[in-house]
């Protein structure tokens, strides 16, 4: 009953003096009763940290870590895993727009176990370059697509499609979608993806917008998505993780 799980990383963004910030957060952690989560621009306490009490998730998260951010975003990834636990019971495929190294897709599938995951999972990305100038991630250069394909060599349910969205939907796109994760870091690509995919999301299907609740350069995404969903009679749930969440009626 009184079990407290703590989680702490040094990975957060938008900090002007990381050393001072870390000192202050170390002190702040010592002043709370426990059950804290520090990382990915979150500091919460008196939380159950359910993600870290779920052994299948911990295993999926840890075996897929490629860089320090992958650990810090545990809470965000757990929301994907929990969404997938719902969507797996619906009629429809899984889709991720913005795959990068494929860690999100692989963590979700491994959470269930690849032999028990009976959905197709479609992943769309340019892979070898980032289409928005100045946004390139480490490793985004010629050859990345090949590397990501190799990472999924044993995952026959994964369909990776290389190319610029929304044009690359012409290479293949599921008729019905139960899980839609959009993570392109730009409003134009995300709105174009919603234009193309929304009608395919089945009733009860889930949409997770990775950047929706992030401020600064990402705010344009929220503004565009709010207008887009308002026109369709929806309101996005803003999550403390920085994500946006929505259930299709
Ligand atoms: C933040 S990363 C995705 C991270 C991934 N979802 C994960 O969980 O690890 C964003 C990706 O979106 C891709 N991207 C952005 N705009 C795109 C577009 N219009 N078409 C295809 N890919 C795009 C970039 O190449 C980049 O790899």
Automatic annotation (TrEMBL):
It comes from the Bacteria. InterPro entries: SAM-dependent_MTases_sf, TylF_MeTrfase. Pfam families: TylF. Gene3D superfamilies: Vaccinia Virus protein VP39 (3.40.50.150). This is Methyltransferase. It comes from Acidovorax temperans.
